[in-house]
Amino acid sequence: xxxxxxxxxxxxxxxxxxxxxxxxxxxxxxxxxxxxxxxxxxxxxxxxxxxxxxxxxxxxxxxxxxxxxxxxxxxxxxxxxxxxxxxxxxxxxxxxxxxxxxxxxxxxxxxxxxxxxxxxxxxxxxx
Length: 127
Known about the structure:
127 residues
């Protein structure tokens, strides 16, 4: 599961739908791997408008990455600054969580991640 995917996931428990603490899910005991993939500048520039920067900063810190700037880079900055573009590419697209758990900040439910796939099936009492 790529770090980019984590930016779009929230708790599936019904009572968490209205809680702001259910997003983002927090990685726990995460085993990360880096897969080198070709840099696609246009994709990265276009996806940045859809990324919740605050959630990404939280996730990056929890995964042990260096702190990100408090504000997201502009399109112009990304296109002009190759280092920032490569750093975000590495974090969002090359870094994968292969094992561990994603934990809801609201209810504490843990979603297991195995072989890079998160299990979002809930027990019947949480649906």
